[in-house]
Amino acid sequence: MAEELTPAVPDAADAAGPDESEEPIKQRKNGLYPGVSDELAENMKSGWADTELRDLQPIPQAAETAARRAALSARFPGERLVIPAGNLKTRSNDTEYAFRSSVEYAYLTGNQTEDGVLVLEPKGEGHEATIYLLPRSNRENGEFWLDGQGELWVGRRHSLTEAEKLYGIPASDVRELAGALREATGPVRVVRGYDAGIEAALTDKVTAERDEELRVFLSEARLVKDEFEIGELQKAVDSTVRGFEDVVKVLDQAEATSERYIEGTFFLRARVEGNDVGYGTIAAAGPHACTLHWVRNDGPVRSGDLLLLDAGVETHTYYTADVTRTLPINGRFSEIQRKIYDAVYEAQEAGIAAVRPGAKYRDFHDAAQRVLAERLVEWGLVEGPVERVLELGLQRRWTLHGTGHMLGMDVHDCAAARTETYVDGVLEPGMCLTVEPGLYFQADDLTVPEEYRGIGVRIEDDILVTEDGNRNLSAALPRRADEVEAWMASVKG
């Protein structure tokens, strides 16, 4: 990785204006160049072509983001609303983690660049929106080739004029925002946790309670997806299905290496067709399938064991799939594996059947848990009756987790929503959730017969609530045991 000289350009959130960014160039400690000569600095200022993009069209979701901002404006009349994208985070020394903007910011703008801030200023009976961004790198002060985030190091960014065309929002220089916010008067709310500089500028103007109300509203706004969002979720699922096929094709190579081969194979599909994986891939073979969030993925892949693959592609607009299949590594379930798998499949069938408009959100969980409890009683692993098991939650020793969650721009979407509108709420058309029952018999669980130990099974699909029921977005991946075996044989050729 190349080394750069960096001028002391302040953090975007801390600068009060363009003049403050004109500071002497700093030498990197242990850099190979002692400095920049006046002649080189002058040479780098000129001889560059005009690269302004003049034929840009609005992003595909521009109409949807405008409608979302209008809903936000109506909820908080007369108040200044500040929604930051966030800043880069250091991974080590002078390298950063890949940036992913705050969901709230991306949901309202469609923009995904670091340091961006959306501000809704009260005006009349509504608000006037402005998107604050870093402009093109400065060529006069050498920022574009000397700064670690200059365009010759990390790539070109859009000019403010280009941004206005893309996002349909007036754009301004974010380096001027913190100073303006310090001088602002009137009620203000900010989405916290993303930009310390912006929060510092508002420290005497906001309260935690009022800011939490803003965060909760933006979380609940995502409970019902619009048509654009549903389309993006289907794209994510379709790519995920192809990623699962990729994995089945290379299971023999995974056996020769480790679970990492499975993780890497799926990651390739996610990066080629999307932005990234939506969460850390769980490639859990053998007894690792009993660890719910096994993301180390460093264990062996053995013929005769099961592979629990929980993975999802994230689209370029941040919508993610979340799908799980439990696959026999050699292509055939053993008798005990099929017995456990079938129980989970029956539970998932019951859960999916309970997803419909007007149903309680909890209904699909309760339906799936009842089936699992029935099987555990039937197998003699827990004393019945089933009602007693469910009342005391005894099945949870082997089922462990809830049966699903909302899905969208976050894999666990809408997490800040109020309990009464989420877990205790009612399903509506446009909601998208996962249905993912599981049974997990730990390798050291002496309360179950030895043949059960080390077997973990989860089946997960992404379910859209429709006007008359539901649609399984991930139905292209087989679920029934015999269909899974036939599909694996077909994919392997």
UniProtKB/TrEMBL annotation:
The record's listing under SMART domains reads: AMP_N
Q: Which reaction does it catalyse?
A: Release of any N-terminal amino acid, including proline, that is linked to proline, even from a dipeptide or tripeptide
Cross-referenced Pfam families: AMP_N, Peptidase_M24
User: What residue spans carry the region label Disordered?
Assistant: 1-35
- Organism domain of life: Bacteria
Question: Could you say which EC number(s) this protein's record lists?
Answer: 3.4.11.9
One GO location term (cellular component): cytosol
**Biased composition regions of type Low complexity, renumbered to the chain:** 7-16
Question: Which CDD domains does this chain map to?
Answer: Prolidase (cd01087)
Q: What are the recorded Gene Ontology BP terms?
A: proteolysis
Outline the extent of the Aminopeptidase P N-terminal domain: 60-199
For whether the record's keyword set contains DNA-binding, the answer is no
Database matches in PROSITE patterns = PROLINE_PEPTIDASE
Task: Return one GO MF term.
Answer: manganese ion binding
Q: Which UniProt keywords apply?
A: Aminopeptidase, Hydrolase, Manganese, Metal-binding, Protease
Regarding protein family, the annotation reads: Belongs to the peptidase M24B family.
Q: Which PANTHER family match?
A: XAA-PRO AMINOPEPTIDASE 3 (PTHR43226:SF4)
Q: What is this protein called?
A: Xaa-Pro aminopeptidase
Q: Which organism is it from?
A: Streptomyces chartreusis NRRL 3882
